[in-house]
Amino acid sequence: MTARQRKRPAAAAGDMTAADRSASALVRRPVQAVVRVRLAPATSRQAFEQHLRTLACVLCAWQVAGEVDYELRVACSDIADLDAMLTDLRRGGAEGTSTGLVLRGVPGLSEADLFRPASDQPLAVSA
Q1: pLDDT averaged over the chain?
Q2: Can you give the pTM of this predicted structure?
Q3: Where do the structural domains in the chain lie, given as residue ranges?
């Protein structure tokens, strides 16, 4: 099954937080990457962002300033799935992409650390 065949419904995408999608996807899709996207001049940001919301592999997306227009965090089942998702990005209006495979998170600086209490501070629970 390719990224194009596994599109998530737009309504369902809004029901999960980015952290939920990330944790769930990483169990099933071990190939993680950071994808930098440059839009084609004729592509509207609104249309491209709507297209991103339909792609199951896309966990997070940021509009950025610089040489590219967007940075994405993706999780795919294998390299073929990543390739299919990159092709789908081009069909959705990307003029070019640059992909870096994630090898590992840096301890103390990875996304998972955002959801953990600091080791020297107890987790505060309110009643």
Answers
A1: 80
A2: 0.70
A3: 10-115
